[in-house]
């Protein structure tokens, strides 16, 4: 579905989700990050792929059960305990050590072109993401942080989408009413929630245009709305 909003001339801003819309993980997995197995095996080389898969699944369940984005050390504690390992402070520090963002994340090919053109047209932009505070630094390292005036980050706000506070935090930071904001996410249910709150919405469906809410297959299509 690719219908336009009833009054596109009212749109003044785009509120972007991050993961799956602007950026993607190198290797295809968000959590734990791509070097998790390497770090663990350096200390415990007997851990098997099957054990890793089970520990990662346990971490996924922990994340899904959290009302807000949990502390990353707490998430790693779940992984490690499921592996039968002691989550010592040093071990946790190794798993969370600083590495170049570009080894972990990359932007989608359609992102930079779209952000530059939206800015040229005077469209304001913000980010609404279930993520950790380091997201800002990650965006800066990837060259896109300069485009966003505000961030609504779940780990800071203590809630996750579709909690209305996530959407309203970003819109309020831009001093714009929901009707003036377009929310973009790769999860159609979160777009539907935004539409229910009065925002315009588009689901990003890069692999398919099928969605229960208005959708795009490329971010470049958003330019037709401004």
Please tell me about this protein's structure:
- This protein has helices at residues 36-43, 49-65, 72-82, 89-95, 111-120, 135-141, 154-157, 164-173, 188-196; strands spanning 13-16, 23-25, 105-107, 124-129, 150-153, 181-185, 200-204, 215-216.
- With 226 residues, it is of the alpha/beta class.
- The protein folds into 2 domains: 8-26 and 104-225, 3-Layer(aba) Sandwich (Rossmann fold); 36-98.
- The strands form 2 sheets. Strands 5-4-1-6-7-8 form a 6-stranded parallel β-sheet.
- The two termini are 19 Å apart.
CATH class of the largest domain: Alpha Beta
CA-atom Rg in angstroms = 19 Å
Q: Which H/E pattern describes the elements?
A: EEHHHHEHEHEHHEHEE
Quote the distance from N terminus to C terminus.
19 Å
* Major sheet size, sense and barrel closure: 6 strands, parallel
* Helical content class: 25-40%
Number of domains: 2
Give the low-pLDDT segments: 1-6
- Give me the CATH superfamily of the largest domain: HAD superfamily/HAD-like
Mean pLDDT: 93
Number of helices: 9
Q: Which structural class should the secondary elements be placed in? A: alpha/beta
Describe the secondary structure blueprint for this structure.
Elements: E1 13-16, E2 23-25, H1 36-43, H2 49-65, H3 72-82, H4 89-95, E3 105-107, H5 111-120, E4 124-129, H6 135-141, E5 150-153, H7 154-157, H8 164-173, E6 181-185, H9 188-196, E7 200-204, E8 215-216
Parallel strand pairs: 1-4, 1-6, 4-5, 6-7, 7-8
Antiparallel strand pairs: 2-3
Helix pairs in contact: 2-3
């Amino acid at each position: 579905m690719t219908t336009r909003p009833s009054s596109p001339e009212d749109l003044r801003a785009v509120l972007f989700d991050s993961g799956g819309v602007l950026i993607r993980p190198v290797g295809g997995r968000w959590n734990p990050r791509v070097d998790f197995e390497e770090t663990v095996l350096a200390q415990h080389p007997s851990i098997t792929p099957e054990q890793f898969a089970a520990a990662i699944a346990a971490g996924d369940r922990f994340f899904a059960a959290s009302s807000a984005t949990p502390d990353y050390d707490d998430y790693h504690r779940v992984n490690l305990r499921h592996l039968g390992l002691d989550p010592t402070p040093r071990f946790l520090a190794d798993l969370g050590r600083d590495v170049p963002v570009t080894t972990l994340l990359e932007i989608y090919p359609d992102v930079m072109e779209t952000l530059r053109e939206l800015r040229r047209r005077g469209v304001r932009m913000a980010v609404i993401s279930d993520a950790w505070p380091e997201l800002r630094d990650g965006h800066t390292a990837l060259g896109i942080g300069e485009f966003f005036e505000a961030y609504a980050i779940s780990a800071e706000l203590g809630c996750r989408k579709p909690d209305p506070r996530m959407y309203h935090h970003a819109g309020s930071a831009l001093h714009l009413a929901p009707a003036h904001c377009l929310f973009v996410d790769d999860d159609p249910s979160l777009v539907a929630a935004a539409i229910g709150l009065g925002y315009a919405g588009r689901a990003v469906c890069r692999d398919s245009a099928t969605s229960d809410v208005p959708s795009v297959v490329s971010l470049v299509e958003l330019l037709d709305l401004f």
